Every structure is written in structure tokens, then in C-alpha cells.
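Q: C-alpha cells for this one, please.
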Amino acid sequence: MRRLGFIMVAGAAMALAACNSGEGESGAAEAATPEEGAEADAAEPVEYVKDIGLLEDGMGEELTARLAAFHGESGHDVHIAVILTTDNQDIEERAAEMIGERGISANGALILIAAADENIGIVPAPGVADAMPRDFTDATEAEMARNFDAGDITDGFNGAVDAIIERLSS
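A: Here is the predicted structure, written as C-alpha cells:
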């Protein structure tokens, strides 16, 4: 778990102001409804990236495409969630809960950002815990925090995704 600086708090405030629902955690996939006549049992698209407005335009789609392609190639199920707060719950505990809630497979991982709390947690699912030990997640979180504090949100996310993909590909 890493604490973030002012840039994350400012991003969270802007995200809250931009949210249509006012709750800050609803994603675009939740707002979409199937067209009339569509098959009732059609699979919903996987929401690899859940964002409250912190990501720059198009970045969520770019990360989703990368994570979906990686999942297709490797079977590893890596997701990103940007939420407002964990409500005083430890970020790693909340991330572990979200792994189950989001249906992330045992050979996946979750990058969780709690913007208002200024926390980052990268949590592997049980099947990849050996491949993503604490020293790796701590170093990746620290690098994300450095990028975020420097105002490089895109580099922070891309760097973390690159590091996880490289680690799980070896």
C-alpha cells in the first residue's frame, strides 16, 4: 500500500464533480443497457477498468484493450479499479474482496486506487501470489505513486500494467 500526494486528491475532486450520478463509483459499463431484442443470455463485456474519472480521455479504453489482449494470450486476469474511498478499510483487504466481487480469476490481480484516501494497492489473486511477491507489489506501487505525484497519471498506470504483464509473462 502506498500513500499518494496532492495530485490524487485533486483528481478525485475533479472526478466527483464530473460524475453524473453523484456517487463517483459508477462505471460506463453499468450505465449501458442491452438493446431490445438482444439475447437475454448474451455475455456482458468484461470491465477490466473501473474509473471514477481520474483517467484521461481514452485511457480507460486503451488499458482495457491491453488487459483484455493479455488475458486472451495468457489467461491472466488483471483489472484496475479507481474508487473514491475504502471507507477506512485497509486497501489490500478491500482489493482482496473486490477480486472476489468482480469475478477475477485465481490467476489474476487487481490494481486498486482509492483516490480520496490517497492509497494504492496491487493485490494478486491466490494463483499468482508467488509470481507477485510483496517486494514486487511494493516497488510497483511506489513507482505508481511517484508518477502520480509528478502529475503523470498515464505513466503511472501504464508502468504498473507493464510491470505486471512482464512479471506474469515470465
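A few notes: Helices lie at 6-18, 28-31, 59-74, 91-101, 134-149, 153-169. Confidence is low (pLDDT under 50) at residues 12-41.
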